[in-house]
Amino acid sequence: MASFERPDVVLQIARQCVNGAGLEPASFSCTLQSRHPDRFVVKIHLRSKAGEERDFALKVYADDLGDRMWTLGRSLAERLPTNHDGLWLPRQYMPDVRTLVFPWVEGTRLSEIVDERRPELLRRAAALAAG
Predict the structure, then answer these.
(1) pTM
(2) Can you tell me the distance from the alpha carbon of 75 to that of 130, in angstroms, rounded to the nearest whole number?
(3) Contact between 94 and 16 (Cβ < 8 Å)
(4) For the chain, how far is it from start to end, CA to CA, in angstroms?
(5) 74, 120 in Cβ contact below 8 A?
(6) How does pLDDT run across 63-90, given as a tens digit for each residue?
(7) What are the pLDDT digits (tens) for 32-47?
């Protein structure tokens, strides 16, 4: 977590997020979204010199679980159609900082839904993961 409080480290990670996209971050912000003993999530907002903006969710792990989730994500990506029913998979894994990179998606996390929709949503999520 401490390294994500250093602007130079966040800028380096931000550049890796958009590698190959031809976007050079001119400014960025990094906001903590959630924190657990074994992982945390930050939102990175990037703005290019041309004014283009992109947001990413970075899920940072304390151990190699991120690598295992990356492997699972790649497996799911091979099996699921492009329109994959709301399942957002990581777009890259940065092993040097144990970080999964996702496009930022506004909305309610499945873990936060506590109403009558929850059982059906959990069934759908399990079915997607099981393939």
Answers:
(1) 0.81
(2) 11
(3) yes
(4) 34
(5) no
(6) 999 999 999 889 888 887 665 566 788 9
(7) 999 999 999 999 998 9
Are 55 and 16 in contact by the 8 Å Cβ rule? The answer is no
- The count of C-alpha atoms lying within 13 angstroms of the C-alpha of 11, restricted to the half-sphere facing its C-beta, is 8
Contact indicator for 65, 36 with CB cutoff of 8 Å: no
Chain Cα centroid distance, residue 112: 17
Q: H/E element holding 121? A: helix 118-130
Quick one: residue 22, left, alpha or beta (phi over 0 = left, psi -120 to 50 = alpha)?
Answer: left
CATH of domain 2-130: 3.30.200
Cα separation, 34 vs 14, whole angstroms: 19
Nearest CA to 112 out of 39, 30, 34 is that of: 34
